[in-house]
């Protein structure tokens, strides 16, 4: 699953748990595993061509994910910002293994976490269209959520 798609789902989760940032983080973390079970894109990392392809996609995805994080933080109702950032952090945390493995050859997570994350993966190189449809769907949902949240009267 593209990291940007995890960011996009984190926005939905942050809005749902806007008054409970720790819960938003935990639900975001759990959502990562659920989303990784959905058939999604992934490239083969065992050969140099796959590693180069990973880096090319990761650069673009990282920049897009960062832009979405900033945009969502600005767009959501101020009351939901902390929870939204917490949910995004939780939803993306497990993918810190990818850059760590690529750059330093080490996975930063304990063995049990690595096993769980590997078990949840359902990726294949031909599933890029699934990624794009999922991301577009989440982006539309996020835009609606952000717009509705900004228009509601402030009850605090």
Q: Give the SSE order as H and E letters.
A: HHEHHHHEH
Content-based structural category:
mainly alpha
Instruction: Give the rounded overall mean pLDDT.
Output: 84
Number of strands: 2
Largest sheet: 2 strands, parallel
Figure out the total of helices: 7
Helix content: over 70%
Portion of residues in beta strands equals: under 5%
Rg of Cα set: 16 Å
Order of strands across the main sheet: 1-2
Spans of at least 5 consecutive residues whose pLDDT stays below 50 are none
Q: Count the domains.
A: 1
* Molecular shape: globular
Ends distance: 37 Å
Can you offer a commentary on this structure?
The chain is mostly helical and 156 residues long. It has one domain (3-149). The chain has helices at residues 3-16, 21-37, 48-75, 81-93, 97-104, 111-120, 128-151; strands at residues 40-41, 123-124. A two-stranded parallel sheet has the order 1-2. It is globular. It starts with a helix and ends in a 5-residue tail after the last helix. 31% of the residues are buried.
Secondary-structure map:
Layout: H1 3-16, H2 21-37, E1 40-41, H3 48-75, H4 81-93, H5 97-104, H6 111-120, E2 123-124, H7 128-151
Parallel strand pairs: 1-2
Annotation keywords:
mainly alpha, two-stranded parallel ribbon, 156 residues, globular, single chain, 2 strands, 73% helix
Q: What's the short story on this structure?
A:
The chain is mostly helical. It has helices spanning 3-16, 21-37, 48-75, 81-93, 97-104, 111-120, 128-151; strands spanning 40-41, 123-124. The protein contains seven helices and two strands.
């Amino acid at each position: 699953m593209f990291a940007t798609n995890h960011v996009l789902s984190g926005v939905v989760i942050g809005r749902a748990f806007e008054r409970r940032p720790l819960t938003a983080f935990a639900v975001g973390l759990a959502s990562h595993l659920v989303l990784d079970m959905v058939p999604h894109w992934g490239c083969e990392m065992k050969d140099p061509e796959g590693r180069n392809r990973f880096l090319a996609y990761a650069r673009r995805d990282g920049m897009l994910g960062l832009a979405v994080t900033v945009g969502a933080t600005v767009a959501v109702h101020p009351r939901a910002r902390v929870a939204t950032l917490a949910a995004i952090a939780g939803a993306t945390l497990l993918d810190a293994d990818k850059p760590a493995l690529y750059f330093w050859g080490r996975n930063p997570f304990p063995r049990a976490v690595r096993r769980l994350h590997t078990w949840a993966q359902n990726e294949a190189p031909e599933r890029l269209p699934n990624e794009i449809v999922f991301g577009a769907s989440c982006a539309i949902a996020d835009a609606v959520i952000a717009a509705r949240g900004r228009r509601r009267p402030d009850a605090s």
